[in-house]
């Protein structure tokens, strides 16, 4: 199974907030990739709270959240940096079953990604 992370960094131009919106899969094996992103976000506007939002992630492992929180708590290199708030869904989402399509290429099953839809308001 492919466990990829995606991070969207939202910074308010008036220095009110820094949000890290995490999508994809947050696992015990890949949560360490968020550490430098969080550290960098904390230096953007030092007194502001950095919010790490995991509520939009497709898959979140409880162990990954614990490791992420421990790493944030143990990071003493950013003295004077703002606090970090980690938002997790009420129920940690697991993986949905991978759909099986009859498309095969060289003996491997291939799935097609959905095309992005552009909606104009």
Question: What would you note in describing this structure?
Answer:
- The chain is of the alpha/beta class.
- Helix content is 20%, strand content 25%.
- It contains two helices and seven strands.
- Strands 1, 2, 3, 4 and 5 form a five-stranded mixed sheet that branches.
- Helix 1 links the parallel strand 2 and strand 3.
- It comes from Kocuria dechangensis.
- This is STAS domain-containing protein.
The counted number of beta strands is: 7
Into which percent range does the helicity of residues fall? 10-25%
Overall 3D shape: globular
| The CATH architecture | 2-Layer Sandwich
Strand content: 15-25%
Largest sheet composition:
5 strands, mixed
What's the average pLDDT? 80
The value of Rg in angstroms is 17 Å
How many domains? Answer: 1
Protein name: STAS domain-containing protein
Give a brief outline of the structure.
By secondary structure, the protein is of the alpha/beta class. It has helices at residues 34-44, 62-74; strands at 5-11, 18-26, 50-53, 59-60, 84-87, 104-105, 108-109.
């Amino acid at each position: 199974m492919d466990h990829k992370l995606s991070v969207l960094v939202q910074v308010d131009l008036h220095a009110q907030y820094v949000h890290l919106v995490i999508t994809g899969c947050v696992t015990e094996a890949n949560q360490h990739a968020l550490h430098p992103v969080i550290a960098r976000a904390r230096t953007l506007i030092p007194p502001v709270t950095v919010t790490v939002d995991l509520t939009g992630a497709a898959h979140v492992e409880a162990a990954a959240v614990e490791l992420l929180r421990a790493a944030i708590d143990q990071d003493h290199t950013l003295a004077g940096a703002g606090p970090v708030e980690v938002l997790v869904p009420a129920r940690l989402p697991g993986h949905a079953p991978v759909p099986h399509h009859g498309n095969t290429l060289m003996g491997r099953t291939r799935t097609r990604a959905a095309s992005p839809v552009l909606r104009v308001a």
